Amino acid sequence: MQNKFIVSSSPHLHTPDSTGGIMFDVIIALLPATIYGMIIFGYRAALMVLVSIASAVLSEFVWNKLTKKENSLTDLSAVVTGLLLALNLPSSLPLWMAAVGSAIAIIVIKQMFGGLGQNFVNPAIAARIVLLVSFPAAMTKFYEPFGEIVSSATPLAAEAGTYHLKDLLLGMHAGSIGETSALLLLIGGIYLMLRRVIAPTIPVCFIGTVFIFSLILGVDPFAAILSGGLFLGAFFMATDYVTSPAIPLGQVIFGVGCGLLTVIIREFAALPEGVSYAILLMNILVPHINHLTARKPFGTEAAKDE
User: Fold this and answer.
1) How far, in Å, CA of 69 to CA of 74, rounded?
2) DSSP the chain
3) In terms of Cα–Cα distance, which of 158, 160, 235 is closest to 191?
4) How far apart are CA 82 and CA 66, in angstroms?
5) Residues 156-167: pLDDT tens digits?
6) Least reliable range by pLDDT among 8-17, 90-99, 169-178
7) Is there a contact between 242 and 192 (Cβ–Cβ < 8 Å)?
C-alpha cells in the first residue's frame, strides 16, 4: 500500500495552541477577580460560581449524550462560559437562576447553533441578557462588599461622585461578582496579552472609545471606564475568537463600535450599564465587518461590476 501525500492550499502554519490551552489561560486570568469577588461578597459568590460552572458543564455533557456527539468537556469552553456568566451576576441572585442561565448559554446559544465555533454571539453575554430581561428585579439587587444587600446601587446607578476612583479600582463597591475590581481585571487582561491569547486591539479601542466619548459628554472618563463591566467585557468577552473579527481593521471597528454603543446606552437609555448589549449588537455585525474588511488574496484582482 502506497502512502498518500495530501496537499492543501497555503498558508501552512503550525501552532502549539489548543482550545483547551487557551481556555485554561482565560481561567487563570479570571482567577484573581473571581477569588476577590468571593472574598468581598462571601460564600454566596462562591456558590454562584460553582453552580454556574456545574450547570454549564452538565448541560454540555447531557447535550453531547443526547445528540451522540464526542465528549467536548476537555476543551474547557463550558467551564469558561459558566465562569464568565457567574462573574456577570450579582451574588444575591437565586442559585437556580444562575443554573438556568448557564443551561441557556450552553444549549440554546452554543450547541443549537452547532457547538463551539458556530455560535454567532457570546454565550455568557446572551445568557446574562436573557436573565436580565426575565428577572430584572433579582438581577439588579447587589450586595455591598462585606455588607448588606442594596438595590441598584452600583457606581453607574448611583449619583456622580458617590464613589472615589480608588474604590472603583480596588472594587470596594456594590456590583456583580467579577466586575468590581478593575485592577484585577486589568491584570488578567495583561496576562492574556502577554500569553498572546488576545490582541490588545479590541480592548484598547473599546475602553479608549468609552473614555473619549464620556469626556465629550461631560462624564468623568475615569469613572466611566472603571465602573460597571467594561473591563470584564473588553478583555474577556469582546475578544472571543468566534464572535469578534479576525482582521485587525475589523477589530478596530468592532472595538470602537462596542465603546460607542456602551456610552450611548449608558447616557441615553433606561439602563445604567450598556456593555453586554453593546457587545451583543456588535457580535451580530461581525459577519458584515469581516466581509467589508476582508483582505484581497495576493495575486488576485478585485471583482469588477459588470
Assistant:
1) 13
2) --------PSP-------HHHHHHHHHHHHHHHHHHHHHHHTHHHHHHHHHHHHHHHHHHHHHHHHHTPPP-GGG-HHHHHHHHHHHTS-TTS-HHHHHHHHHIIIIIIIGGGTSTTT-SS-HHHHHHHHHHHH-HHHHTEEEPTTS-EEES-STTTSPTTSS-HHHHHHT-SS--TTTS-HHHHHHHHHHHHHTTSS-SHHHHHHHHHHHHHHHHTTS-HHHHHHSTTHHHHHHHTTT-TTTS-SSHHHHHHHHHHHHHHHHHHHHHSSSS--HHHHHHHHHHHHHHHHHHTPPPPTT--PPPP-
3) 235
4) 21
5) 655 444 667 777
6) 8-17
7) no
Cell representation of residue 217: 459628554
Number of residues assigned to the chain:
306
Amino acid identity, residue 94? P
Strands 149-151 and 141-143: antiparallel
pLDDT tens profile 137-186? 899 888 777 765 555 455 565 544 466 777 788 877 778 898 878 899 99
Question: Looking up cell 468577552, which residue turns up?
Answer: 237
Whether the Cβ atoms of residue 27 and residue 76 lie closer than 8 Å to each other: yes
All three cell numbers of 206, joined, read 473599546
User: CA Rg, the chain, in Å?
Assistant: 20
